[in-house]
Amino acid sequence: MGFIKAKDGADIYYKDWGNGPAVVLSHGWPLNADSWDEQLVFLADHGFRAIAHDRRGHGRSSQTWDGNEMNTYADDLAALVDQLQLEKAVHVGHSTGGGEVARYIGRHGTDKVAGAVLLGAVPPLMLQTADNPGGLPMETFDAIREGVSRDRSQFYYDLTVPFFGINREGAQISEGIRRQFWLMSMQTGLKAALDCIRAFSETDFTEDLKRFDVPTLFVHGDDDQIVPIGAAAEAAHKLVNGSELKVYKGGDHALAVTHRDRFHEDLLKFLKGLQ
Question: Hey, which of 7, 8, 38, 255 would disulfide with 259, CB 3.0 to 4.6 Å?
Answer without folding.
Answer: 255
